[in-house]
Design a protein that fits this description.
alpha/beta; two-stranded antiparallel sheet; 2 domains; Rossmann fold; six-stranded parallel sheet
Length: about 240
């Protein structure tokens, strides 16, 4: 069957740092949690052309001194090198394309982390047909606009698309709400309440999802399991 698979980036295709960029910048500048949330909102929804431009915005917003350019540049440059490909990521995306499905990326991300992703996953980049990134679009998941833009760009109906991501609230639930299927990459080490892993999709799924949604979502431990499930589904079988 034809269709599309949309992938998240952070903690799906690459490992991300435990502390997000908004909090890292706030900590480096001696700012608090409220300011960190504001900064994070800017980073994921605005296309800053350089660390210098971002530093100017921070100075204007928070009355900061001139010498903040260096720590901002250091965090920016770190984000360009920190992403590390998740085991099985390239093979999973390649398998989707080999099955004749189209591939898109839908991710909350900022400019240097996109650079880092492209560096970490050079085999994935040419396989992606549409990039719906929050900092370019001006909206962030779970806003359905990013998902709709990806589906429109690929010319695929929601019923023929699957979202793969690590976040229940930002990847799985919004995809299901649009009528898509979803694969939730959630290892057993996560603290989140989980529906069952592949092969066990009965009562536990109904604890996390409505009955009609549980039939369209599969939890897997890693991208190797996701690849197997996708191969079955794209060959005309069931996802769950």
């Amino acid at each position: 069957m034809s269709g599309a698979v949309l992938f998240d980036i952070g903690d799906t295709l690459v490992r991300r740092p435990e502390v997000g960029p908004g909090r890292r910048i706030a900590d480096a500048l001696g700012l608090g949690r409220d300011e960190a949330r504001v900064i994070g909102g800017w980073l994921f929804r605005e296309a800053f052309a350089s660390p210098r431009v971002l530093a100017e915005r921070l100075r204007d917003a928070f009355g900061l001194p001139e010498h903040i350019d260096e720590p901002i540049a250091a965090i920016w440059e770190a984000q360009e090198t920190e992403p590390i490909e998740v085991d099985g990521a390239t093979a999973c995306v390649a398998a989707v394309r080999e099955r004749g499905a189209r591939v898109g990326v839908v991710s909350n991300i900022w400019a240097p982390y996109e650079t880092g992703f492209r560096r970490a996953c050079p085999g994935i980049v040419p396989l992606v047909e549409t990039w719906q990134l929050s900092y370019r679009a001006g909206v962030a998941k779970p806003d359905p606009a990013l998902f709709r833009a990806a589906l429109d760009a690929l010319g695929v109906a929601p019923a023929n698309a699957t979202m793969i991501g690590d976040s229940l609230e930002k990847d799985v639930r919004p995809a299901l709400a649009l009528g898509m299927r979803a694969i939730w990459v959630a290892p057993h080490t996560t603290a989140a309440p989980l529906p069952p892993a592949a092969g066990d999709v009965t009562a536990a799924a109904r604890d996390a999802f409505r009955d009609e949604d549980a039939a369209r979502v599969l939890r897997v431990d890693d991208l190797h399991a996701a690849r197997t499930a996708l191969a079955r589904f794209l060959a005309g079988g069931r996802l769950v």
